[in-house]
Structures are given as C-alpha cells and as structure tokens.
Amino acid sequence: MNYRWATESDFAECRRLHxxxxxxxxxxxxxxxxxxxxxxxxxxxxxxxPDEWVDNPGDLTLADRISHLDNWRSELLAGLGDIRPxxxxxRAFCDVAREAGLTPEEPLRFIEAMRQDLTVGRYAxxxxxxxxxxxxxxxxxxxxxxLLGAPETESAKSAAxxxxxxxxLTNFLRDVAExxxxxxxxxxREDLDAFGVSExxxxxxxxTPETRRLVEFExxxxxxxxxxxxxxxxxxxxxARRPVxxxxxxxxxxxxxxxxxxxxxxxxxxxxxxTEKLAVAARVLLLGA
Length: 289
Hints:
- By secondary structure, this protein is mostly helical.
- The protein is 72% helix and 0% strand.
- The longest helix is centred in the middle third of the chain and has 23 residues, at 126-148.
C-alpha cells in the first residue's frame, strides 16, 4: 500500500508504542489481518503520544503540554489535508484515516479530552464522567469501528462506545493510586458520598470497608458495560470479532484481579500475567469463547 505521508519506519514506531505501552491491546491486535493491524497500530500511536504528554510529562510545564496538544490538533487537521505532519505516529494515523474515510470529529474529541485532563481533576456525577469518557474512550471505540469497516448502525456504534467506557472505567479502578498522585479522582463525587468515602481517603490511599464497597460498585458498573459491548461483537466484520472479543475478555480480567485483592486498589497495580494472557488468547482466538 502506498501512503501519502507515512513510511514503513513511521508504522514501525506506532507498532513499537503499541507493543511497549498497550500489551493487552497489542496481543489482541495480532489476531487481525496485517493490513488491519497496521491501522490499529496507527490509531494506538495517535492516542498514546498525547496521553504521555498529559500523564507522564517529565520536564514539560502545563503551558508546554497545552502547546503540544494544540499543535497535535493543528497537525492532525493539516495532515488530513495537504501538509505532512512532523510526528511519525501522526503521519501514519492521517494516512490510515484517509484510507478508511475517517472524519476528524472523533480524533478531535479525543484531543479535547486530553486537554481537559490538564485542568479538570474531579467529576461531580457519573453523567459528568461520561461526558469526559465520550472523548477519552468512546471516541476511540468509534474510530476503531471505522478502521475495521464495521457497519454504521446505532447498535454497532453503541457497543463500541460501551467497550471504550468499560475499558476506561477499568483503567480508573486499576489506577486509583496513580491518578491520586497526579491530583485526580475519576470516581464521581456522588459515588464517594453514597459510600461514605472522602476525597482525602482517595488521595491518601486509605483503604477502608467503605472504599472497598465503592470499588465493588464501580466494578459492577464496568461489567455491565462489557456485557453491552460483547452483545455488539457479532455486528463486526468476521475477521474482527475474535480479536475484539479477546481485548474485552483480557481487559475485564483486571477487574477479576482487583476483586481477588479484596477490592484493595492501593496495594499495587492489578495486572494479568503473560501466561494468563496467552492462555486466554489461545482459547478466544481458537474457540471464540
């Protein structure tokens, strides 16, 4: 395939980012045909680079990060037009976006969510959190749909957005301690209040029966979203069903790990082992279950 902007080394950089930072997603993506896998690698590179600026800025100031995100947005729009982007991940993404007929709407929603992370660290209600996740997670699910050539039906789109939100909620639960260290609390204030948990407890890493019940509640919410997402997998093209199912199953296993710890989210990051991932991958990719 001849692309307008990207070289093989640009796609290789996206693949490196995917393999290094998104091990679960990367493993699941190996079930796609090579041409589709290239698209998915490019999407991962597009979302990973700005996410790193936001969450792991190093010496970047707030003004630096805002500038980086604004430039990412400008270069995205230019790259979908007639100006070659400077970053390899953006060159690859613009080319696969053009190839798949992906419009700028969802990529722009994602960038705006990353910008929101720089100034918003609390969410009063779950509805407020959902508005954030519309850009940070559901938008990624919709971009995946377009890159996979999924039907443009409301059912398929709804399932894709549900999977994005399910994975995002899983991240929030896995990363409570890391987010607290950044001064962020993604668990809605209305939920904290309902279970008698204070912001101080979340930020200080104080585990109590109340925090464990709160985590149980959020796990149940995430599992409902996974169920909604799985109901939409049969709507995907045949080649995409098992890889997407694998990603959903593997990521939901993080919730199992959190439960196995007694819903203790401060004791360390919940992870699935490589052996477990490979066993699940063999079962899903070979048996579809």
